[in-house]
Amino acid sequence: KRNVMVVMEGTGGYEYLLLKHLAAHKLEAAVINPRRVRDFAKGIGLDAKTDPIDAKVISKYAEVVVPQPMATKSDHELKHGALVARRNQLLELVNQENNRLKQSWDDDAKQSIRDVLEMLKKQLKNIDSQLAKMIQADTENQRAIEVLQSVMGVGPVMISTVLAELPELGKLNRGEIAKLVGVAPINRDSGKKSGKRFIGGGRGQVRRVLYMATIVAIRHNPAIKAAIPGRTQNAVIYGVADC
Length: 243
Known about the structure:
Blueprint: E1 5-9, H1 15-24, E2 28-32, H2 34-43, H3 51-65, H4 75-103, H5 107-137, H6 142-149, H7 156-165, H8 174-181, E3 189-190, E4 193-194, H9 204-220, H10 222-227, H11 230-240
Parallel strand pairs: 1-2
Antiparallel strand pairs: 3-4
């Protein structure tokens, strides 16, 4: 019997239904970064983009790169991930409505925006409560949860995000995890010239939540506060306003 692995691009969530269907039929699957596939296509001289061409490029990319198949998730993990995704969407909507409130000059329009914001914040509170209950009921990841909870500055949102969007934590070394999240500085050297290191790519939502957890930790976790110079602390805190 020939082993089969289905490789697909990440499409912002549309891929999850296919992943669930494949898992039900015990077929391995991998989700790959669309930007890397596009860069790969250009690298082999395929600038045109159609569905048949994309399928061939993804197949060739999978043959060359051999991506790791995703671990099959339980129904509990899938629901946890869905709630984390919904929380992120609500936060984005809150941010959009807050911006509209600042731009609006009409009292009735402002009141409409405030009503929507109140509803969104109630939904956020409800989802946060559900996530907290799911963490308590999660026996499969109990050890990881205990370790995360032991770190001052790490709360239910951070734990839920890590469980849902960074399941590799504890299975890879710290360098690999840092690269996966997108916080590992990338080399830009040429010959004797050593360029500046920058972070980039990775899992943006994990990085954003980690950033906010770091702000709390700088203020309340003595070990982390002592490890970060005062000027860097201020830079990190001021940087939140730009996120």
